[in-house]
Amino acid sequence: MNSFLSMCAALSCSVASAQTLNYTWPNQPCATVLNCDSGCTACALPTGGTAVLMGIAPSWLGVDACPHPVAVADNAVATYNWPGTLDPAHQVMLSGLAFSGLSIDSVIIRHTAAPDGPSRVHVRFGANTTMPTTVVCDVPAQQSTVETIMTDLGVVQAEEGSPYGFFQLILQAYDGGLGAWAIDDIRIVTSPATATSVAEVAPLSQRNVSASQVDLLGRAILRSASPMITTAGRRVVVLQ
Q1: Mean pLDDT by 10 residues, the chain (240 residues)
Q2: So what's the pLDDT on residue 136?
Q3: Are the beta carbons of 81 and 177 closer than 8 angstroms?
């Protein structure tokens, strides 16, 4: 009996803690693989999924995607055929399901561009009926590997008549030549949405906007130090 209770407590703790979907393109077999003639084969499914959070393999719309090794058993996905201007026919689309209310605490994209590749990256995010119309950021696609970090993207939860909430991330590179834009990895960090998460979806005028913000390392973020985009009454911090 005691062992059963301990197991239940451990399960409850794991479900209630932060959860992360990790798209890292490892060299291993899985239900959905990505391959190409000039590259290698990689698993396109994320790790970190649980009973309350499920990630779906990306869709590569209008672009060519090819995994290439960056370390042992670790790949980046090089994408080609990006247009000179933003075009909805060219995008990388990542989707996920939330079977209970989840706060999307941060999205981290590790990426780089070839010298003749795209010079900009445009990111949109949305949930349920707001499927991604919100522009989260538009940042330079640098020729050295960088991390673009977006925080406070809001809450995903089931709407009436659905057993789960649905969220989507859209990435679009543009403004460059025929070279590649490479995605090393993508991490979507979530935590349970509780009563204390109401501020994440409340109008900005109803929140304490003087509260300090911190980055993923716990360091204070000055408002003048990072670009902020106000979307639907909340602030999204973009670090790069």
Answers
A1: 38 58 93 90 93 95 94 90 96 95 96 97 89 88 96 91 93 96 97 61 35 43 41 49
A2: 93
A3: no
pLDDT tens digits, one per residue of 87-116:
999 999 999 999 999 999 999 999 999 999
Residue-wise DSSP of the chain: -HHHHHHHHHHHHHHHS-EEEEE---SS--SSEE--SSS--EE-SPB---SSEEEEEEEEESSEEEEEEEETTEEEEEEE---SS--TTSEEEEEEEESS-EEEEEEEEEEEE-TTSEEEEEEEEEEGGGTT-EEEEEEE--SS-EEEEEE---EE-PPTT-SSEEEEEEEEEEEE-SS-EEEEEEEEEEEE--GGGHHHHS-GGGS-TTS-EE-TTS-EE-TTTS-EEEETTEEEEEE-
CA pair distance 149, 130, nearest whole angstrom = 21
Alpha carbons 66 and 40: distance in angstroms, whole number: 7
Q: How far apart are alpha carbons 216 and 147 in whole angstroms?
A: 12
Nearest Cα residue to 150 out of 117, 120, 116, 124: 124
